[in-house]
Amino acid sequence: MKLFLKITLAFLVSVPVLAQSNSPYTRKGIGDLVYSFSSRRLGIGQLGASVPDADFISTINPASWYMLKRTRAEFSMDYSGIFASGNSLKKYYGDANFNGVTFAFPISSLYGISGGFGIIPYSNVSYEVVDTFRNSITGSYKVDSKGTGGVSKIFIGTSYLLPGNLAAGATFDYYFGTLNYVETVDFSGTLGLNSVYNRKYEPKGIGGTFGLISPDLSPLINSDAISNLRIGAALNIISPLSTDTSLISTTPLDSDTLGSGIVDLSIPFRFNAGISFNLDTKYMFCLDYLFQPWSSYKFNGLKSIELADLHKISAGFEFRPVLEPGSSFWEQIIFRAGLGFERTQYYLNGENIQQLSVFGGLSIPFSHENTLDIGMQFAARGTTKSNLVQENMVKLNIGLSLGEIWFIREEK
């Protein structure tokens, strides 16, 4: 338990560092969305709203915590790489980052009450784009645009088992972050004066996530092979985030604050629903749909014509062997796979940017109740049509899932 506490506390004082894998699409809105930070969820397609967890912590649906039997902590980090190609662009970008930490513990198994909290990323911005322009006064000049940062959230919540074994859960979420945009205008010796424009947005505010998971519905279909059939749904709502804004212009002559103030940044709700079941106990299948109407996103009361409603469908599979006394190391490994299709929130040059993903992963036990988790994603996003960018992406997520028995009274 001492080792468990030391590792947990070390990660709790860390703040998620968001990936800088360089995608020009993240210029829009609040950047790429992070659906789930864990290796387990990545391996089954990032979602899994109906999947209850006895030995993993879901940040998708807090209702899934009702099955927890031990105090658990999870940490993860990943490597993200993008090979981008366009009309005049072919380049590979990659970087590693720490994702966050979650912590959950059972309070009452009889009533399905568990508590949980953590700090995880919600979105990230990472791009660098160089454009060349020309006018009759200054001649040719370049604009180097860079964006970094993102939005994170701290959550605390609980689960509860309602009458009829309907599981419910809710979290209180606090959102914060920094979105930093820098444009460097380089006139390269022409008549213009080189300038740097720095826009910084610092949103903060509150929200909540609410979820339900049905009782086991498999008796309704009267099949010996199918068990643990459940449907689930989760709704994430965020109040308008109060956002400190500033615009600073810097030239070789001076630095000037062109504008500052506080505006509202409105992130639309997110709805996720799914179904899952076990086949012959060892095989779990899940199917999910996620919707988020980014067409209603607003910054300072204004919508963006370059954002559209997001739709995501994913299917996941997990093979979990039935553990028996004397099981070998290889007989304890959990395997996962998934597929996903996404019509992203990006709508550029008349094109809906789409993404197709393949997922995989496994959990390797290194002691009782503790696993090393690995998740992988290979994705293709975008198109080279309409002067856009095609991205082939890879993500490798490595995490730890640690479990301990706490709060149990010793027999005298």
Note down, in words, how this protein is organized.
The chain is mainly β and 412 residues long. It has one domain: Porin. It has 2 helices and 19 strands. The protein has helices spanning 2-12, 39-43; strands spanning 32-33, 71-85, 90-108, 113-135, 139-162, 166-186, 195-213, 226-238, 241-250, 255-266, 270-279, 283-293, 298-299, 302-303, 309-319, 334-348, 351-367, 370-382, 390-404. It has a 14-stranded antiparallel barrel with strand order 2-3-4-5-6-7-8-11-12-15-16-17-18-19. Strand 3 (90-108) and strand 4 (113-135) form a beta hairpin. It starts with a helix and ends in an 8-residue tail after the last strand. Residues 1-5, 7-20 and 407-412 have low confidence and may be disordered.
CATH superfamily: Outer membrane protein transport protein (OMPP1/FadL/TodX)
The portion of residues forming beta strands comes to over 45%
Average predicted local confidence, pLDDT: 87
Number of helices: 2
Q: State Rg.
A: 23 Å
Taken together, the total number of domains comes to 1
The helix content, as a percent range, equals: under 10%
CATH topology: Porin
Number of strands: 19
Q: What is the H/E string?
A: HEHEEEEEEEEEEEEEEEEEE
User: Structural class, judged by helices and strands?
Assistant: mainly beta
